[in-house]
Amino acid sequence: MEQTLNKDKPEVRLRAFRAIDEPHTCQLFIEGHTHVLTSIGVTKVTSSKNEWTENPAAFVMVVESMDGKKVYGGARVHVAGGSQLLPIEQATGRMDPGIFDLVWRFAQQGTGELCGLWNSREIAGYGIGSIFLIRTAVAISYQIGIQSLFALCAPYTIPPGEAVGMEIELGIGNNGTFYYPKLDLLATTMILKDVPTLKKAYEEDKAAIMKIRENLNIIRNEVLRKKEITIHYEIEIPHLDQWDLKATIANAQSNYNSAKFKEEDPEIL
């Protein structure tokens, strides 16, 4: 029998894996994310957008029931140099082709993007989509080996982005902003420039990220605005011995050289 979420004492698992290793879980992610996007009026979601499921440089985080049958939320980290351009390049390249130069500048040392952040209404209010997935994305970025992390943020995700050390990139778009994915939605370009050190992260967030980095499989009782949730972190990425960051960085050069300006579907936090 499928487990239901105990709203008084919710208990979930937050797990990380490489997209190509778990197609079924990726499909659950897609279904949940699509539902969230359509609920805010973003209906231009096509099957081609799900090519990330076959991208060897895409890493996925899911918040799921303890039996693994229900996905309550998730996010992804895409590394520059995979089989696709980063989502932020796909999304904004037509509006400001300078994004390609910006990404390539960071890609030479290993960069990625936090994207596809969502949580279901069922788990809203516990900080999954606003804090804990963002912290986890920073933690797995260190595990993957990248030095920096981009994000295209909705207004409500700017503060938690700043909390983990991200900065608004003023040199892109209109002082870092784009009207995207619709004319009435504003997206802001942010970059975490020092994944290993997190010098600009808030102390509470930095301490939490470091704790997770040191203990990739850990149970934590997390609290947000007096609401408590137990999270079983299982973010040690399986089969990481098959991950080749150097080869991915080399491929980022090819992606940069062949970047084409084309309209893509939404990938906004």
Question: Could you walk me through the main structural features you see in this protein, from its secondary elements to its overall organization?
Answer:
With 269 residues, the chain is of the alpha+beta class. It has a single domain (11-257), classed as Aminopeptidase (3-Layer(aba) Sandwich), CATH 3.40.630. Helix content is 30%, strand content 25%. It contains 7 helices and 10 strands. The chain has helices at 23-39, 87-92, 98-107, 128-144, 158-163, 203-214, 245-257, and strands at residues 11-18, 58-64, 71-79, 111-119, 148-153, 167-168, 177-179, 186-192, 217-224, 227-234. Strands 1, 2, 3, 4, 5, 6, 7, 8, 9 and 10 form a 10-stranded mixed beta sheet that branches. Strand 9 and strand 10 (227-234) form a beta hairpin. Helix 3 runs antiparallel to helix 7 and helix 4 crosses helix 6 (203-214). It is globular and about 50 Å long. The two termini are 32 Å apart. 43% of the residues are buried.
Features:
269 residues; Aminopeptidase; globular; 30% helix; alpha+beta
